[in-house]
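Session log. Operator J.P. requested a structure for one protein chain; no other inputs attached. Running the standard single-chain path with token output.
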Amino acid sequence: MKITNEHYEELAKHVRPLHDAETWKEYQRVGMSATRYRFDLLYRAKISDFVCNTLYRYLNDDHIATALKKAVPLR
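Structure written below.
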């Protein structure tokens, strides 16, 4: 992953608690992707200043999606 360990830990700290298996099942039921679910979690984390001013300075959506995938594994 291109994200620094420090930034990954900050990202994961905010999105992991928001993951809910029932909500993920509902996303699946209506045909929404895992990537969309994870980015919705990121939005709900209300850390857009960190994402925009820190992460997007050196990462793109693909890099952030990879970090979210590691932070919120879906089975």
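Operator note: The chain has one domain: 5-71.
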